[in-house]
Hints:
Blueprint: E1 5-8, H1 12-23, E2 28-31, H2 39-43, H3 56-68, E3 73-76, E4 81-87, E5 90-95, E6 100-103, E7 105-108, E8 112-114, E9 131-133, H4 134-142, E10 158-165, H5 181-195, E11 200-205, H6 214-224, E12 229-240, E13 245-251, E14 256-262, E15 264-269, E16 271-273, H7 277-284, E17 311-313, H8 323-346
Parallel strand pairs: 1-2, 1-7, 2-3, 7-17, 9-15, 10-11, 10-15, 11-12
Antiparallel strand pairs: 4-5, 5-6, 8-16, 12-13, 13-14
Helix pairs in contact: 1-3, 1-8, 4-5, 5-6
The protein binds flavin-adenine dinucleotide and iron/sulfur cluster (SF4).
Amino acid sequence: MSKPVLIIGGGPAGLAAAHSFATLGKQCVIVEKEDRLGGAPILSGYAKLVPTGEWAKDAIGGMVKRVEDASSVKVITGTKVTNFDGAPGDFTAKLSNGDTLEAEAVIVCSGFTHFDSVNKPEWGFGTYEDVVTTTQVEQMISSGQGVRCPSDGRKPHRVAILLCVGSRDRQIGREWCSKICCTVSSNIAMEIREELPDCHVYIYYMDIRTFGLYETKYYWKSQEEFKVKYIKARIAEVTSDGEKLIVKGEDTLVKRPITIPFDMVVHAIGMDPNVDNPEISDTFGIDLETHGFIDVANRYGSMGATSRPGVYVAGSATGPETIDDSIAQGHATAMAVLSGAQDLKTA
Length: 347
Ligand SMILES: Cc1cc2nc3c(=O)[nH]c(=O)nc-3n(C[C@H](O)[C@H](O)[C@H](O)COP(=O)(O)OP(=O)(O)OC[C@H]3O[C@@H](n4cnc5c(N)ncnc54)[C@H](O)[C@@H]3O)c2cc1C
Ligand code: SF4
């Protein structure tokens, strides 16, 4: 009997790969370092997802259940691979729980790490309680608590969302665009306006990248139906006058300095390479690309190929990705693994 495929990480990409294998009756094992499956949307408590508007706990929770119910999928949580050896068709992985696994191939679906806003101290996170991140606002909404100022629990009357926090910022070594945060921020702005109709929401941006069809559903809808205001600006700092947060910068369209008071400031945080990537690169013997994401060695010939034959990668481990693209990559890479195994048999 052929060996199972090892999947590292049980987020949307890993869950999709596992589902593909299960559908075809192929054995696979998910090794997930956290104590449950679901990846960022579940572990970080996202609220309603773009573009479907489905709650993350339902949409991704459904993917988790489907995989947990599949008899051909083994799930090992709270565990990492510590050692990895062998060749395509015949790999051996040692796990941090002491087990050893044999595998035919590996798909690394280890995802990304949210940018830590303390690395952008001039924008007030970590100094002022009411400067929060998009993930925190997602959690306020998904927990049912609603959007409130953490300092005293009051409903905010004025909210500023600052885009590109930890993205497109050479000064802090993060040149990439995180792809989804413009759309997520427009969505959050509409959710705030829906919950708190008296609250004014401003989005401060360099460029708006609500890419593809999201332009209509998020950028225009948020302005025309929800009266969210967009200001093209370069933000210098977020301070406090003791009562309100003060956002200072330059309105880059009219080229005038701006100093505006807010109750709450939201950082639209970006997607960093997984902090584990140096360790993953070392353990699995695969290359990282220049920013620290896992390098895709062959973009056209074989889905998810890395620099090491038999080791594949899918989802946001390769760079900022949306959930639906991560899922598509998970499914497609499972297919590439199966066709790679077929190539081995016929070689
Ligand atoms: C604030 C915010 C909101 C977002 N909202 C949306 C949205 O509404 N719609 C959308 O399309 N996209 C959204 N995204 C993007 C979305 O989070 C990603 O597209 C998605 O999580 C990628 O899935 P993934 O499986 O590749 O990675 P992840 O979700 O990061 O999953 C990776 C999994 O691997 C595990 N792992 C990591 N390292 C190891 C290791 N060494 N060993 C074992 N396991 C490991 C992790 O614990 C995790 O479970 C948002 C992103 C941000 C920052
Ligand atoms: S998607 Fe928007 S907020 Fe996110 S990095 Fe790109 S331009 Fe900035």
